[in-house]
Amino acid sequence: MEWLAEHLWVLWVSLAALLGVAELMTLDFTLLMLASGALAGGLVALAFPGVLWVQIAGAVVVAVAMLALARPTLLRKVRALPGYRSSVDKMVGSPGIALTEITSGTGEVKVAGEVWTAHSVEGTIPAGTEVEVYRIDGAIAIVYPRNLALP
């Protein structure tokens, strides 16, 4: 136990590594910012072994600063890359099934395993019809029947 108190930095660095690996699963930069905080906690643990509250404070300050300052900048740069498409953008052109009758004002559709509120591009689409996503407007999928050309 005494060794652990003197070498708490090992736990901090291990936590940073775990968060870094977990970031590879999400690619959202949140866990990466938390990993940088854990790494900072490890560096503080090297400088102040046995003073846990200082280590935690250092980790929290760096993690919050990274989340507030670095993450938005990184996300902006990634989203500005040529060819970047968000998951919502990728839904355009996806096939789906009308779960209810879809009009220009109401309806539900299932696309990629998710249920969305839907509006038709034009006219009424009966329930059970295969549709295609024309565009996404906030949380509403604008759809048209797959067997018809776009109006």
Can you give me a brief rundown of this structure?
With 151 residues, the chain is an alpha+beta fold. The protein has helices at 2-6, 9-26, 30-47, 52-79, 87-91; strands spanning 95-98, 108-111, 114-120, 130-137, 140-145.
Structure description:
By secondary structure, the chain is of the alpha+beta class. The protein has two domains: 2-79, no CATH class; 87-144, OB fold (Dihydrolipoamide Acetyltransferase, E2P) (Beta Barrel), CATH 2.40.50. Helices cover 49% and strands 19% of the residues. The chain contains five helices and five strands; from the N terminus they run αααααβββββ. It has helices at 2-6, 9-26, 30-47, 52-79, 87-91, and strands at residues 95-98, 108-111, 114-120, 130-137, 140-145. A hairpin with a 2-residue loop joins β4 and β5. α2 packs antiparallel against α3 and α3 (30-47) runs antiparallel to α4 (52-79).
What attributes does this structure have?
single chain, 151 residues, alpha+beta, OB fold (Dihydrolipoamide Acetyltransferase, E2P), 5-stranded mixed barrel, 49% helix, 19% strand, elongated
Which structural class is indicated by helix and strand composition? Answer: alpha+beta
Mean pLDDT: 88
Number of separate structural domains: 2
Order of helices and strands: HHHHHEEEEE
Shape: elongated
> What Rg is obtained from the alpha carbons, in whole angstroms?
24 Å
Helix percent reads 40-55%
Q: Taking strands numbered 1, 2, ... along the chain, how are they ordered across the largest sheet?
A: 1-2-3-5-4
Low-pLDDT runs: none
For the termini, the CA-CA separation is: 73 Å
User: In this structure, how is the largest beta sheet organized?
Assistant: 5 strands, mixed, barrel
Indicate the proportion of strand residues.
15-25%
